């Protein structure tokens, strides 16, 4: 799978990162339409990371395709004609989501260790200079 | 630049990561031929990261193109006909390398913070349960 590039197991992919946030936002009942895009952009602005519409769309699509999330349309309160799209776990979706979250925790921790190692390997002697 | 994908500023690219290691290995006088590939594979095996030949080649090529590294051929000790390829900083290369390393330190720290944030945002409630 993934004809675009063979994975060498470098840092986690943006797609996985976005899917993780989508699952958590669904748990917290706050995944509405594409509000997510604004929410993530706000959260990650201080880090210089700006997820784009197409990445977010593909991540959502993956989760729906895999039966993790389900799109639901609901009438906006007090509005007869306006609908709002939100997401919830279909039957079996919550369990799949929890499995995915457990896998992603391992993956995030792996990435954190790799980055720490790179800081140590490439700048270690700078920091050790401040030690006795 | 970068017609393959527009950068949304997600985690650092593998290419940059490899270039950083190449610079440090040159500082330590241990960047020989493609030994680097074996060295990096050994170092990152526990992390499930296996850089491939083409990635390493492209990173080296970038550094040479940018005047950071220079390829030198040297006769192997005691061998009349065998040459070994190694890398050193050409004139001005060391300064460029140091600038790159400073930039990459900021970038690695940014990535570390983003990953820590993701762990906190998506698993925080688990860990906080152990706190008073």
From TrEMBL, chains A, B:
<dbReference type="GO" id="GO:0006274">
    <property type="term" value="P:DNA replication termination"/>
</dbReference>
<dbReference type="Pfam" id="PF02334">
    <property type="entry name" value="RTP"/>
</dbReference>
<dbReference type="GO" id="GO:0003677">
    <property type="term" value="F:DNA binding"/>
</dbReference>
<dbReference type="InterPro" id="IPR003432">
    <property type="entry name" value="RTP"/>
</dbReference>
<dbReference type="InterPro" id="IPR036388">
    <property type="entry name" value="WH-like_DNA-bd_sf"/>
</dbReference>
<protein>
    <submittedName>
        <fullName>Replication termination protein</fullName>
    </submittedName>
</protein>
<dbReference type="InterPro" id="IPR036390">
    <property type="entry name" value="WH_DNA-bd_sf"/>
</dbReference>
């Amino acid at each position: 799978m993934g004809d675009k590039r063979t994975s060498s197991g470098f840092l986690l992919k943006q797609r996985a990162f976005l899917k993780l946030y989508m699952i958590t936002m669904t748990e917290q009942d706050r995944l509405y339409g594409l509000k997510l895009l604004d929410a993530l952009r706000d959260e990650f602005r201080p880090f210089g990371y700006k997820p784009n519409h197409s990445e977010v769309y593909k991540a959502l699509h993956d989760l729906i395709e895999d039966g993790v999330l389900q799109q639901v349309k609901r009438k906006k309160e007090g509005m007869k004609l306006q609908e709002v799209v939100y997401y919830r776990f279909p039957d079996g979706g919550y369990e799949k989501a929890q499995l995915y979250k457990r896998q992603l925790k391992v993956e995030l921790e792996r990435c954190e260790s790799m980055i720490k190692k790179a800081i140590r390997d490439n700048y270690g002697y700078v920091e050790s200079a401040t030690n006795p």
